[in-house]
UniProtKB/TrEMBL annotation, chain A:
It comes from Streptomyces albidoflavus. One of its GO terms (molecular function) is phosphorelay response regulator activity. The keyword Glycoprotein does not apply. It holds the Pfam family Trans_reg_C. Residues 125-224 bind DNA. It comes from the Bacteria. This is DNA-binding response regulator MtrA. Residues 125-224 form the OmpR/PhoB-type domain. One of its GO terms (biological process) is positive regulation of DNA-templated transcription. Keywords: DNA-binding, Phosphoprotein, Transcription, Transcription regulation, Two-component regulatory system.
Automatic annotation (TrEMBL), chain B:
GO terms for molecular function: ATP binding; phosphorelay sensor kinase activity. Residues 664-676 have a biased composition (Low complexity). Residues 699-721 have a biased composition (Basic and acidic residues). CDD domains: HAMP, HATPase, HisKA. Residues 1-28, 115-140, 573-611, 635-721 are annotated as: Disordered. It is a multi-pass membrane protein. Its EC number is 2.7.13.3. The keyword Phosphoprotein applies. It catalyses: ATP + protein L-histidine = ADP + protein N-phospho-L-histidine. This is Sensor histidine kinase MtrB.
Length: 225, 721
């Protein structure tokens, strides 16, 4: 099973503890303590998931996240000590798929990591359309007029979840469960930020979305195809 | 002629002149008639027509009046103009008077000396003529008869030296009879002699008959035969002609020149005065402007300062008072800015500190947490003591974590760093999530959680995370203290507010606790062991969350009768709350149930009996509370609600209404009669709607609560539940 996890954290004790927990769960952790070296380590180890502390010496977590996201769609989970909206949103906007606020329980962490890695299971061949987009679920590609649009796995999952049931309005909580794998309701800001990131990639005019439509007071739905 | 309003109408109509005041109009037509008549007659001031007229007159003046009230500059300029005008006028009159006097004095002196000389000449001539006639003897008669000729000669001769500077008039001595006299009046220079010399003067001259030599003068208008009359000075003397007969000789000095000079001076003065007034006005305008401009500037800048533009400053030039005002103002503004900046810095520092502490504490805590969990997982391999220790470690870490989280949250509120992220949210979803989350705990406690009022969407602009936190807190509290009995979560929306009330039937609250439950680290019973972890900050945070929404979080409870916590938030953010759709005291409280029982008994007299088993009378704004209450009952849509609707209408004389359910319950008068001892107490309560220990009226509120509780305790005994 794929389970290489790159832990980017400057706190050696926490990193070690994370290592113990991850190994205990069958993952292969590798560590880097410095933000400046994180990218090199990422290229070297080619992990399946990155655990990234938001506050790092050298380049901070946000910057590292942005750099990794620039060259890869690998799932990134932020470890943050700040739960203020500003901090969370900044982290998510830099490209993180999920975040987890310290202090967290090991089970919670593992659940999040598994939820991010879960999608590696082979999907059935499926062709979806949403608006003027064509989604090849198995091929993991989104195309508009033959031009493919690069999405991260999470954004892709979000789009697919909406496109599979175009008649349904998804509340943020439902999306959290389907896309992020949360059992209990968590932070709906995750959804808001990622919907915006998704829109910036797939919409012709992100100001007037046609693919992912907001249903005020309820949630989101797929636009008419 | 106005008569008392009680005058009979027949008399009014009979007496045409009588004008009634018109308040006892028997019919609209008649009244109108009277009104119009009154106006035609000039009317009384209270007449609406007159008032209308007065308004009509005043209306165009209003802007001017407003300008007058608002503008110092206008006031000063107008006052200066008026006062300088007065001064100039006064000055002008004085100056003109003095100049006139001076001119006339000079003229008078010149005229007198001239006249005196002339009179001397005339006297000499008469003397020589009479002496000659005395020498000649016989011829004297013929000469005497020629006195008229002599006089004509004399007048001609005297006036010839004057070159129209004066004229000479000779009149006969017997003053007022000129017409018949042989010696008719003589005058030079076309002067009409009789009219030019005033009668009074002639009389006065005549009176000096005995002692010649007195000079008399008077101002008069000199009348000319050929030209317009002129003001002039007349000097007269009684003289004797050669025959020894008395006659009056007058010198007439026209004052044309003087008048011209005076007119010139007058016009000069008037022009100068006008200029002075105008210039003074202009000067006042400029001067006041110099003072007013900085004042206006200061006012404008003060306004901008108060609007938050703290960097605004006055321009200061020079070292005068205005400059000092400006400097003082700027200093004030600077100090203000400094203080505000300090506060902002402090707040920022606090926030930074909280954030840093949070990070610094959280990272090692995470490690400890994970380590403890790993140990906890492996506890089965340990000996019992170590295993138990591992359990304790994990449990207490949980508590420590939540305490840290709550502390950080509350310090965020204290630092003012909490931000509301409101979005339209259906509170039913939030409530269902919360109830779902508390299901596990409820099962353990054997409690059933019911949700009422969730038939229709209850949408409000709220921060769902915060509201969920508040409700989770309330529901978990209710389950924990509910002693296994049902917990009812009720939703309602009415007017501009939505409310969620969480009702439990557990131990309830003691008197005064309803406000104290929101205090930090407050515990209902310090002696009681805490079975479930709680930080003691939950309700404080909940209260802050409610406040952040502009909402209320209030508690009600009775000992042994359970409690109800009510969260009320405005439907749209930033809208002030006026009331809550759910009464704070539930309809099934012991007190209300007691009231219901009373209602079922035979009807009593309306007057409140001194001893009643239901010890509550609530006075309030009539109608409003009842309407609101019944609306709330309907909104609640439950049996209890229906009961509540019915209750007040039947119990109208003694309505039992939850005082806090009244709209704007900020101030209420609660008169309660008959506690357990049958004593009567009146409590005037002016608390803020949000029950909190920090509220200024906290004591008063506690007192109310205490009284209410005392009453309820009494009821409890009576009802014997």
């Amino acid at each position: 099973m794929k389970g290489r996890v790159l832990v980017v954290d400057d706190d050696t004790a926490l990193a070690e503890m994370l290592g113990i927990v991850l190994r205990g769960e069958g993952f292969e952790p590798s560590f880097v303590a410095d933000g400046d070296k994180a990218l090199a380590a990422f290229r070297e180890t080619k992990p399946d998931l990155v655990l990234l502390d938001q506050m790092l010496p050298g380049r901070d977590g946000i910057e590292v996240c942005r750099l990794i996201r620039a060259e890869s769609g690998v799932p990134i989970v932020m470890l943050t000590a700040k739960s203020d909206t500003v901090d969370v949103v900044v982290g998510l906007e830099s490209g993180a798929d999920d975040y987890i606020v310290k202090p967290f329980k090991p089970k919670e962490l593992v659940a999040r990591i598994r939820a991010r890695l879960r999608r590696s299971e082979e999907p059935a061949p499926e062709q979806l359309t949403i608006g003027d987009l064509v989604i090849d679920v198995a091929g993991h590609s989104v195309k508009r007029d033959g031009q493919s649009i690069a999405l991260t796995p999470l954004e892709f999952d979000l789009l697919v979840a909406l496109a599979r049931k175009p008649w349904q309005v998804f509340t943020r909580e439902v999306l959290l469960e389907q896309v992020w794998g949360y059992r209990h309701a968590a932070d709906t800001r995750l959804v808001n930020v990622h919907v915006q990131r998704l829109r910036s990639k797939v919409e012709r005019d992100p100001e007037r979305p046609e693919i992912v439509v907001t249903v005020r007071g309820v949630g989101y739905k797929a636009g008419p195809s | 002629m106005s008569r008392d309003s009680a005058a009979p109408p027949s008399q009014e109509q009979g007496n045409g002149a009588g004008r009634p005041v018109g308040r006892t109009d028997r019919g609209p037509g008649l009244g109108w008639l009277r009104e119009s008549r009154r106006v035609l007659q000039g009317g009384v001031p209270s007449s609406p027509f007159l008032r209308l007229f007065a308004r009509w007159v005043r209306r165009p003046l209003l802007p001017a009046v407003r300008l007058w009230r608002r503008s110092i500059q206008l006031k000063v300029v107008v006052t200066t103009l008026l006062m300088s005008l007065g001064v100039v006028l006064l000055l002008g009159f004085v100056v003109i008077g003095q100049v006139r006097n001076g001119l006339l004095d000079a003229k008078q002196r010149a005229a007198q000396s001239q006249a005196r000389g002339g009179f001397q000449v005339a006297q000499d001539k008469a003397d020589t003529a009479s002496a000659r006639s005395a020498q000649d003897g016989g011829v004297a008669d013929g000469r005497t008869q020629n006195a008229t000729v002599w006089m004509s000669d004399l007048v001609e001769q005297l006036s010839s030296g004057g070159q129209s500077a004066f004229d000479v008039v000779a009149l006969s001595a017997d003053a007022l009879d000129d017409t018949g006299s042989i010696r008719g009046p003589r005058a030079s220079g076309g002067v009409v002699p009789v009219q030019s010399v005033p009668v009074d003067l002639r009389r006065a001259v005549d009176e000096t008959a005995g002692s010649p030599g007195g000079l008399y003068q008077s101002y008069t208008r000199i009348t000319y035969a050929s030209q317009a009359s002129q003001p002039g000075l007349v000097i007269g003397k009684r003289l004797n002609d050669p025959n020894g007969d008395a006659y009056q000789l007058y010198y007439l000095f026209p004052l044309t020149q003087e008048e011209k000079s005076l007119t010139l001076i007058k016009t000069t003065l008037a022009t100068a005065g006008l200029f002075v007034v105008v210039l003074l006005g202009a000067i006042a305008w400029v001067v006041v402007r110099q003072v007013v401009t900085p004042v206006r500037m200061a006012a404008g800048i003060a306004e901008r300062l108060s609007a938050g533009r703290l960097q605004e400053r006055m321009k200061v030039t020079g070292e005068d008072d205005i400059a000092r005002l400006g400097e003082a103002f700027n200093k004030m503004a600077q100090n203000l800015q400094l203080k505000i900046q300090q506060l902002e810095d402090l707040s920022r520092m606090q926030r930074r500190f909280v954030s840093d502490v949070s990070h610094e504490l959280r990272t090692p805590l995470t490690t400890v947490r994970m380590a403890a969990d790993v140990i906890h997982e492996a506890r089965e391999d340990f000996d019992p003591v170590t295993a138990r220790s591992a359990e304790l470690l994990a449990d207490q870490l949980d508590r420590f974590e939540s305490l840290l989280a709550d502390l950080l949250e509350i310090s965020r509120f204290d630092a003012g760093a909490a931000a509301l992220e409101a979005e339209p949210t259906d509170l039913r979803d939030v409530v269902r999530r919360v109830v779902g989350g508390a299901e596990l705990l409820a099962e353990r406690k054997g409690t059933r959680i019911r949700i009422l009022g969730d038939e229709q969407p209850v949408v409000a602009e709220v921060d769902p995370r915060r509201v969920e936190r508040v409700l989770r807190n309330l529901v978990v509290n209710a389950v924990e203290h509910g002693e296994g009995r049902d917990v009812v979560v009720r939703l309602a929306s009415a007017g501009g507010a939505v409310a969620v009330a969480v009702r439990d039937y557990g131990v309830g609250l003691k008197p005064g606790e309803a406000t104290r439950v929101f205090s930090r680290f407050w515990r209902a019973d310090p002696a009681r062991a805490r079975t479930t972890g709680g930080t003691g900050l939950g309700l404080s945070i909940a209260l802050e969350d409610a406040r952040l929404h502009g909402g209320w979080l209030q508690a009600w409870g009775e000992p042994g009768g359970g409690s109800q916590f009510r969260l009320t938030v405005p439907r749209t953010a930033d809208e002030p709350l006026r009331g809550s759709p759910i009464p704070l005291e539930p309809a099934d409280s012991r007190r209300n149930q007691g009231a219901q029982e009373v209602e079922q008994k035979p009807v009593r007299p309306v007057a409140p009996a001194p001893r009643t088993d239901v010890a509550t009378t609530v006075l309030h704004a009539p109608g409003v509370g009842l309407a609101r209450l019944s609306a709330a009952g309907r909104a609640a849509g439950s049996e209890e609600g229906a009961d509540r609707c019915r209750l007040p209408s039947r119990a109208a004389p003694r309505p039992v209404v939850d005082p806090t359910a009244l709209p704007g319950s900020g101030s209420r008068v609660v008169a309660r009669s008959g506690s357990a001892e049958g004593s009567r107490e009146h409590v005037v309560d002016g608390t803020a709607p949000v029950a909190s220990g920090a509220a200024p009226g906290g004591r008063a509120d506690e007192r109310t609560e205490g009284t209410a509780r005392a009453g309820r305790e009494g009821e409890g005994g009576l009802r014997g539940e």
